Amino acid sequence: MKKKLIAGLVLGFITLVVFGAIGDFKKLYGLAVNFNAWLFIPILALSMANYTLRYGKWQYYLHLLGHRVNPWTSLGVYYTGVGMAITPGKFGEVIKSSLIRATDGVQEYETLPVVIMERLVDMVSILLLVGAGLGTVMRSPKVLIAGVVLTGVMFFVFLTGPTGRRVYKLLGRMLLKKLDAGHIDKAMQNQRILLRPVPFLISTVISLLAWSCEAMGMYLVVLGLHGSISVPDAIFIYSTGTLAGAVSMLPGGLGATEASLAVLLGPMGMRIFADGSHAIAATLLVRVCTLWFAVLVGIVAFGVMRKYLRTNSETRVTDSDNQAGNLQQS
Question: Cα(118)–Cα(56) distance, rounded to whole angstroms?
C-alpha cells in the first residue's frame, strides 16, 4: 500500500510539472496570485460536503448489513479512505475494512462489499451526470461509452460467482488476510443485500449530490479566474474529467483528468476560457481543492486514527493488568 501511495505522489508531481510547463509557469503563477483567496473557503467546504455525503452512504451500507459502529470512529476510518484517492482505481480504500475491524471489531469480509459497492455506485452516478450533460452540449460520447463499458465490466466481475470470488480473494491478500470459502460466501451475500433496488437507488442519489458538490467547487474556481460558465456546464465538464480519470485506472486519474478538464475548459473544448493558460490554471486549482485536499484530509485522519488505536490498545493493556492484580489480591 505504501508503494502505491508513493507512486501516486510521484505521478502527481510529474503531472504538475508537465501541465505547468504547457501552461507557462510564469502565467500560471500570476493567475494563482490574483485568484480570490476567500473563494477557497466555499470551494473546500464543497469538497468536504462531497466526502461527508459519501460517508453517509458508507454508514447507510453498514447499517443495512446490521453493523452499529461508533459514528465518530467510523468517520475517521472513512476520511482515512478518502486519502487513498491517489492509489490505482482507488483500491487503496480497502484499508477502511482493516481499520473498521480494529475500531469496531467488524471483520474485513463483512465490509469489503461496502467498499466495492461505493466504487460501483460512484461510477454509475458519474455516468448519469455526464449523460445528462451530453444532451445539452452535444459533445462526443466516447468517454461516456468507455465509462459504460468499464462499469459494465465491473458489475460483471463483482456479481458473477467465480470471478467475484477471485476478486475477494485478491482484496483479502491486499489486506494480508486469507479469506476462506465461508468468508467469501458471506461477502457475496452482503453484496446482494447492497444491490437491492431501494438501497441502490438511495446510494445513487447520495452519490449524485456528492459529486455535484465538487462540480460546484469547479464552478467557483472558474468564476474566481473571471471565466463565464453555467452550472450545468460545470457539472458536465467536471464529471467528464472525473470519468476520464476513472476509465484510465491511473492513480487518482492523474494526467487523464487534468487533460480532460484543460481541454474542455480551453479554446479547443467548450471555450470557457479563451486561452490555454487560464484553462490549465483552473484545472490545477480544481485538482488541488479536490484530489490533493482529499489526500491531506486522509493523512490527517490516518494520524488521528493511529493515535486513537494506540491509546485504546494501551488502555486495554492497563485494564488487563489491573484485573490480573485484583485477582491475585483476592
Answer: 11
Q: Which residues contact 246 (CB under 8 A, 6 or more apart)?
A: 89, 123, 126, 147, 150, 253
3-state SS assignment for residue 88: strand
How far the first Cα of the chain sits from its last, in Å, is 48
Element (H, E) at 193: helix 181-194
Torsion region of 196: left, alpha or beta (phi above 0 gives left; psi -120 to 50 gives alpha): beta
Q: What is the pLDDT of residues 62-99, one digit of tens each?
A: 999 999 899 999 999 999 999 888 877 666 788 898 89
- pLDDT tens profile 91-132: 678 889 889 999 998 888 899 989 989 988 998 899 888 887
State the average pLDDT over residues 10-39.
Answer: 88
* Residue listed under C-alpha cell 467475484: 164
Helices first, then strands: H and E counts in the chain? 14, 0
CA distance 51 to 122: 12
Residue 238, C-beta contacts closer than 8 angstroms, at least 6 positions apart: 211, 214, 215, 218, 261, 286
Q: What percent of the chain has pLDDT over 70?
A: 83
pLDDT value, residue 253: 87
Closest CA to 221 of 282, 163, 160: 282
| Cα 28 to Cα 8, 17, 263, 277, 307, distances in angstroms | 23, 12, 16, 7, 39
Measured CA to CA, the distance from residue 135 to residue 314 in angstroms comes to 58
Do 54 and 283 touch, CB atoms closer than 8 A?
Answer: no
Distance (Å, whole) CA 264 – CA 317: 57
CB distance 56 to 219 below 8 Å:
no
Backbone angles phi, psi at 114, to 5 degrees: -65, -45
What pLDDT, in 10s, does the model give residues 233-259? Answer: 999 999 989 988 888 888 888 999 999
Question: Hey, what amino acid is at 7?
Answer: A
pLDDT of residue 291 exceeding 80, the answer is: yes
